[in-house]
Write a structure and sequence with these properties.
This protein is mainly beta. The protein contains 3 helices and 16 strands.
């Protein structure tokens, strides 16, 4: 049995990829490559250690690896901002005029956003897609279970299981193991349109949901929107 855990991994040998798994990988890649950007209001609920956080945020996502999230007050003013761009994560708390800055890794993104995903995988999930783990070693189809057929993907330090439509490449559910904590992400769609997703991680005692409103896909977003200029005098702290 392959053993993977946060901070440690036993990498499996590289295995030949069968034709059916290769076709599924090509479908996933095609869907992800089609994505350019999205903007939406996001109603976010996150429960961790029995404490629940609820807020509405303005969310911008641009492929391959840029995200901006502004948590909004009831009056519509941003009070907490997070950007992931060009390999850096910045989280700014306007109420304290304080920021945390560090590399955009799965570990730092998990600490700030609750999703143990690298920047490109975070963008894929927010867009309703899946990106294979880096340094892919194993890709194989798994027979039907109660959710239908799935694709197992094993990288050097991470394992994923993807339930998807093998005709269209649309992802229904994604399990990720091997990061800071395992997580299951279940996508919600209104027809073809993504309406949000639910997430859970029993080992981390984390559960949550993200619901999109007024979603616009492919409308174009300027790259500078993902650069967060901190106010003068803001206190900064490194996050690793």
């Amino acid at each position: 049995m392959l053993l993977l855990c946060g901070g440690c991994a036993t990498a499996p040998p590289r295995q030949p990829v069968a034709d059916d798994a290769r076709r599924a990988l090509a479908l996933l890649d095609a869907r992800r490559q089609e994505f350019t950007d999205l903007r939406t209001l996001a109603d976010i609920v996150l429960t961790r250690d029995r404490e629940t956080l609820r807020f509405t945020g303005a969310l911008l996502v641009k492929g391959p690896d840029s995200v901006r999230l502004e948590a909004l007050s009831p009056l519509g003013q941003p009070y907490f901002l997070v950007t992931v761009h060009e390999g850096q994560l910045t989280a700014y708390d306007a109420t304290k005029n304080a920021a945390r800055v560090g590399p955009a890794t799965a570990e730092t993104i998990a600490r700030v956003l609750g999703l143990p995903l690298d920047a490109d995988a975070l963008v894929a999930v927010l867009a309703g897609h899946a990106v294979p783990p880096k340094d892919l070693r194993v890709a194989e189809l798994v027979p039907d279970d109660r959710l239908g057929p799935s694709l197992t993907l094993v990288g050097a330090d991470r394992r994923q299981r993807v339930w998807m439509d093998f005709e269209t490449g649309a992802v229904r559910q994604l399990e990720i193991d091997g990061g800071p904590f395992p997580v299951t992400i279940t996508f919600r769609r209104d027809g073809e349109a993504l309406s949000g997703f639910d997430l859970r991680s029993e080992p981390a005692d984390v559960a949550g949901s993200v619901t999109y409103r007024n979603l616009v896909v492919g409308g174009g977003i300027e790259p500078e929107r993902f650069t967060l200029a901190l106010p003068k005098g803001a206190k900064t702290q490194s996050i690793r």
